[in-house]
Amino acid sequence: MQEAKYIYFGGKFVGWNDAKIHILSHVVQYGSGVFEGIRCYKTKKGPAIFRGLDHYRRFKDSMKIYRMSVKESPEELEAITKKLLKMNELEEAYIRPVAYRGYGTIKPNPLSLGTDLAIAAFYFGKFLSEDADKGIEVMVSSWRRPAPDTVPMLAKADGNYLNSQLASMEAGKFGFTEAIMLDVNGFVSEGPGENIFLVKDGVLYTPPIGASLLKGITRDSIKKIAEKLGIPVKEEFIPREMLYVADEVFFAGTAAEVTPIGSVDKVQIGDGNIGPISRKIRDAFFKIVQDGEDTFGWLDFVK
User: Which of 26, 75, 77, 106 has a 20 to 30 A CA-CA distance from 52?
Assistant: First the structure.
């Protein structure tokens, strides 16, 4: 991660190394925070935040689930982010807003605490692979996504990613790039930090939000792009074995963008490279975020 000059912290812009919290902050002890991942792209028409308001609306929804709140609206958070990008002289960036509970109690119950806000922006390149066409090797993790009545996966909460860490560490230990996680019922859920799509017989499949997954902004974008391209999209529960017989499989997310999967549990998918439908979707996605050809209204240009 490449450091920037400034972070929005405690209601003001401070130096990168000055954004500090107490070691006994509630978020450190109990993981009581929510966050977002947003990209600013250097398009041919100028730097633009991709679906920033949608991300900030989900940010506010995550807070609501955990009884947290900040006074800033999604529009105000977007304005702060634009100013931060300009101050850091960034035309391309990964943006990380965090809402968290700070210092004040040792008890697990945090309702006596307020909600603190920070927003960071910094340069961040490719997430899972530098080779955009070669499929990555993944495994189905032994760690499953939590049941809906344990922790809410619709909230992009700090603590949820302890579960993700276990899956990613397991995959790395066995020589895989990433993991695929199942839900409590054994259906395909998502990756540790990415949503998943499968192509079979020309149809694009993705699990429903009932499969204990995050309702991804990029996931929604891929569905809309596919529909515009005339590719049928089905959102339904997917059994594990469908991963092995799929024609194409790919991850999608803010960090992952569109990353092809070449094998699952050492079972090769297609020829191991990005498939024709995945490529068509990926090219349409990058035409938006790189060329600035946005018919969906998803880009908010930093002026």
Answer: 26
Confidence check: pLDDT of 126 > 90: no
Q: Would the pLDDT of 196 be above 90?
A: yes
**How far, in Å, CA of 147 to CA of 143, rounded?**
12
Residues 6+ apart with CB under 8 A from 138: 171, 176, 177, 178, 179, 180, 191, 261, 263, 264
State yes or no: is 45 an active-site residue. no
Contact 225, 285 (CB under 8 A): yes
Pick the CATH number of 6-122 from 3.40.50.10780, 2.30.38.10, 1.10.418.10, 3.30.470.10: 3.30.470.10
User: Do 34 and 99 form a contact (C-beta atoms < 8 A)?
Assistant: yes
The single residue of 156, 215, 234, 280 carrying the catalytic annotation is 156
Distance CA 137, CA 261 (A): 6
Q: Are 181 and 167 in contact (CB under 8 A)?
A: yes
Q: 136-288 architecture in CATH?
A: Alpha-Beta Barrel (3.20)
pLDDT in tens, 179-189: 999 999 999 99
| Span 6-62, pLDDT tens digits | 999 999 999 999 999 999 999 999 999 999 999 999 999 999 999 999 999 999 999
**Residues 71-107: b if buried by 16+ CB within 10 A, e if exposed:** ebebeebbebbbebbeebebeebbbbbbbbbbeebee
Q: Please state the pTM of the whole predicted model.
A: 0.95
Residue 64: which residues within 8 A CB-CB, separation 6 or more? none
